[in-house]
Amino acid sequence: MGDDGRVHLSEDAPVREVPRDPAALPGAAPRPAETWLRIVQVHDRITRRVDSALHRRHDLSLTGFEALRRIAESPGERASMSELAEALGLSRPGVTSTVSRLVADGLVLRERRDADRRVLHATLTPAGRQRVTEAARTHDELVAHLLAHLGDDAAVVTDALARVSSAARARS
Length: 172
Fold this sequence. Notes:
This protein is mainly alpha-helical. The protein contains six helices and three strands, in the order ααβααββαα. Strand 2 and strand 3 (116-124) form a beta hairpin. The relative contact order is 0.10. The model has no long low-confidence stretch (mean pLDDT 87).
């Protein structure tokens, strides 16, 4: 050990300092704050990129696209407002605003069913069906392109995020 407190292997060997923070070592487990930051950054960047592409190519926001897709995938291409709010992670006012824009654009109709007049449903119009079909190609290709950077880690990351999502959803 030299006077400076470092271990020297030989005179010509490069001196590598051991970081004071073990998390800075390659392969070390990241701190929760680092993991959280990465999740937020990835979500924010992918969301902005996909939203921008959908606006440019289809005059549709990402939230509007997600609402159209959920309606399209629902039985009879019809979903209640509460189903949409739950699926999209939006508040009731948020889903009402999103559906109002889709109605104004002629992509969705609001209707009440005879079975339960209290429940308001959103139903696709033919224009909505066409728009979501076209926009789905843009959305899915761009998301697949961006997530391809996960490489062989895609299954592990997906599984891990599903576990975190499930734990966060559970009420304590």
